[in-house]
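User: Look at the shape:
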Amino acid sequence: MKILFFIDSLSSGGAQHQITNLAILFKKKKYNVNVLIYNNKNNFFAKKLEEEGVKVEVLKNTNYIARIFNARKYLNKNKQDIVVSFLETPNFLACISKIGFSKWKLITSERSGTKKSFLGLKNKIFKWFERFSDVIVCNSNVAKNLWIENYPNYSKKLLTIYNATFVPNIGENKYIALKDNKINIVIAASYRGIKNLTNLLDALCLLDKENLEKLKISWYGNINASNDSEENYTKSLKFIKDNSLEDIIKLNDAVHNIDDYMFEADFVALFSEYEGLPNSICEAMMLGKPILMTPVSDYKTFITSKNGIICKDSKAENIKIALEEVVLLKKQDLINMGLESKKIAFNLFSSEKIIEKWEKVFNNIINKKEGEE
């Protein structure tokens, strides 16, 4: 079976991470796999795909109109059996390419699922074209329910498949709880506004000196992820300096070995205003890490009081309250919470289980006769 994965770029974003994981997993299962992109400026995951023998092709992309015609031409000449597209614009390009006499099947997936993504003329046009997809895969039930609420006529082709997550290879590293008598927290997220670094910094300023000095926070993320990322990063560095937080929180660029940093941490955190299914949380749980996060995505499914702490919301005051709860934990608490995270993660996110679900979808749509629901 020939599968083409289609996405905007191979930058360090969550959707790009996930499509890279899927392409590699299916390649290892002897599928004929290629990846198509149209933005070649940031190739964070390109080397990883190359190492696994996955070919990446770049669509000719002179302007927006040309991109539509070039995508349609490529997709209808490539002779793939299935196209799997991620994110709004690639989904739209794939859907518009499907119109006519195409023989290939199409699976679209948005990866975020927010109320805002269903508003506005552009989003409504893009969603209208989803009628030409064979299946719409969401990576959370929250996202799936939003689709059903806004487009009930698509309900029969909607389903949820969680992110495929590798069991990370952390080499000879050993976890030392409460290293230097501090709670070490790692955050893997870009510096986009929705990732909520601003409110985290405000929360740190609300903590009393004793609790603040019990924390060591390391943030890793793409500084150029969006138009506001670099500005947020620069302003945050200034805020950290102005408020003497240099010994508490460090801001870093994205790294390929984020698993190593997560494994050494006591907690992995995420303070986003909204998310699809965050890769960093799935991977952290696979590593056996306690989780600190805002109430986004399907958090009720994979976070309980036994393996994590949930902020009431993404506001600074409630992040502060959650951090006060974190600093009270002892070494054995952290170990027990980590064990529970690992148990939940293997049940929900193991690559073997996720690939089985994708294969079932592939086989169903390939074998489905024309006109069948």
